[in-house]
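Form 7-S
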Amino acid sequence: MSNQHGPRRARIAFSDSAAKQLETITSEAELHALDRALVVLSVDPDAGTPIPGTATGPQLRQYIDDIEHVRVLYFVTALRTVVVVAYIEV
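Output:
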């Protein structure tokens, strides 16, 4: 039996600070651009590049979409099912 659905997407969750940043976005174009970036990350959490740091916590990554002018800092949970967004720049 073939799988009719694509691979499972990761859930997107926001840190408190990212949620506050999200509340300040009022432009429909900026919301659309951010939504597109979050869809990319939900489909492929490894789409971003690692940010050098210590190995004591989760590996921070950044995803930059130069066309939509979006930057998202995030980390992926150990089970790779949730992407936690730490910072949003639109």
